[in-house]
Specification:
Residues 31-373 form the Adenosine deaminase domain. Belongs to the metallo-dependent hydrolases superfamily. Adenosine and AMP deaminases family. This is Adenosine deaminase. This protein is of the alpha/beta class. It has one domain (9-44, 110-379): Metal-dependent hydrolases (TIM Barrel, Alpha-Beta Barrel). It is built from 17 helices and eight strands. It has an eight-stranded parallel beta sheet, sandwiched between helices. Helix 6 runs parallel beside helix 8 (149-167). Bound molecules: adenine and zinc ion. Adenine (ADE) binds at residues 38, 41, 101, 206-207, 234, 236, 290, 319-320.
């Protein structure tokens, strides 16, 4: 696949603005469930600047980079990270993304910081009618900097309570292990998180996938399933051995395979993987804006459509909006519609898929499903 055919950063921004300028009232008002957003991927330049100023912490785009002195310098450095059609090396881009992403964690020190971070996302979610979300967090990126668990988790818990009460956005957390760290570290973190299990609904796996297959983490995922957690893992698009990783995630890990797969778009290229996913009814969380940065424009829509038309329960989500042209769930849904030619009925299917593959209680699911139907009927009154 030629990355040289992917859209440039400027064209992606133009596409985003064009999609927002067109009528998007139905998608905006559709009640939403978001299942794939990294809380640390929502640290925008503005939020990072605010927290850095408050804590007096140094501001860098990468660990050994020069110290940045202003919000404008940070914005310019983040802009430079954006993959461009002229930058051909996918691996190098991924490396730079992860370097900047983990450096971004440095602004988080106090319970108030974790609270502000979660409220920043939940506040945005409320404006685009997200009713329920399951949010990823990467504890190893915080404990490795000496942040105590209670600082992180109590900040998250307070934001969760406030958002539910004041913004009517319900939420739960998915604890992700960093797959480029050891399975032993994952196990250690799993055990340390158990006191907070009443706000953690599931366990995930993210970070750099190269040579880190799902099966490597079988022990901790099996234990988590036995303990009642739901399970998911990233299968990043076009990563090395993508098909084998999807096969393990769908049918091998924790005895029979996971409950969901994050990304996994390469399944569209292999009928056997599609059958496997359908047979086990594994839900998939897609983030089209993220793929637009690496995949050719012409290929992306058809691949998403293959999964959708096969009847796989795909949902549309945002991933790391602060690093992806400020594209949140709304922009991702607009892009999916644009690329796949989805009509409002299809968008309802996608919204319902997200509800159905979520790990919310039946009561929460039923309420959101009813609300989706009401909004559809309001926009499409019977003749
Ligand atoms: N962690 C945060 N963003 C990620 C991504 N896009 N892929 C894998 N791990 C991640
Ligand atoms: Zn992700």
């Amino acid at each position: 696949m030629g990355i040289e055919e992917a859209l440039s950063a400027e064209l992606r921004e133009k596409l985003r603005d064009d999609l927002l300028a067109a009528d998007h009232k139905f998608i905006l008002e559709l009640p939403k469930v978001e299942l794939h957003v990294h809380i640390e991927g929502t640290i925008t330049a503005e939020l990072r600047w605010k927290l850095t100023q408050r804590n007096g912490t140094p501001l860098r785009i990468a660990k050994n980079g020069p110290e940045l002195q202003s919000l404008e310098e940070l914005q310019a450095a983040m802009d430079l990270l954006r993959p461009d059609s002229s930058r051909v090396n996918n691996d190098e881009e991924r490396f730079q993304f992860f370097e900047a992403y983990y450096e971004g964690f440095e602004c988080l020190k106090t319970k108030e910081d974790y609270f502000d971070l979660a409220m920043h996302y939940l506040g945005h979610a409320a404006t685009v009618n997200v009713r329920y979300c399951e949010i990823f967090f990467d504890p190893q990126g915080h404990t490795s900097r000496g942040i105590p668990w209670n600082i992180m988790m109590e900040g998250f818990r307070e934001a969760q309570k406030k958002a539910e009460k004041e913004l009517k956005v319900k939420s739960a957390w998915i604890m992700c292990f960093l797959r480029d760290m050891s399975p032993e570290s994952a196990m250690e973190h799993y055990k340390a998180a158990l006191p907070y299990r009443n706000i953690i609904v599931g366990i995930g796996l993210d970070s750099n996938e190269t040579d880190r297959p799902p099966a490597l983490f079988d022990e901790v995922f099996s234990l988590a399933r036995n303990d009642g957690f739901k399970l998911t893992m990233h299968c990043d698009v076009d990563s090395k051995n993508a098909h084998e990783h999807i096969r393990q995630a769908a049918s091998v890990v924790a005895g029979k395979g996971l409950d969901r797969i994050d990304h996994g778009l390469n399944a569209a290229e292999d009928r056997r993987l599609i059958e496997l996913i359908l047979k086990r009814d594994v839900g998939m969380t897609l983030c089209p804006w993220s793929y637009l940065r690496h995949t050719t424009y012409a290929e992306l829509g058809p691949k998403i459509r293959v999964l959708y038309d096969a009847g796989i329960k795909i949902s549309i989500n945002s991933d790391d909006p602060a690093y992806m042209e400020d594209c949140w769930i709304l922009q991702n849904m607009l892009l999916a519609k644009h690329l796949c030619g989805f009509d409002d009925k299809d968008l309802v299917v996608l919204a319902r898929n997200a509800v159905n593959i979520s790990w919310a209680s039946s009561a929460v699911k039923e309420n959101i499903l009813k609300e989706i139907d009401l909004v559809y009927d309001r926009f499409h009154p019977a003749q």
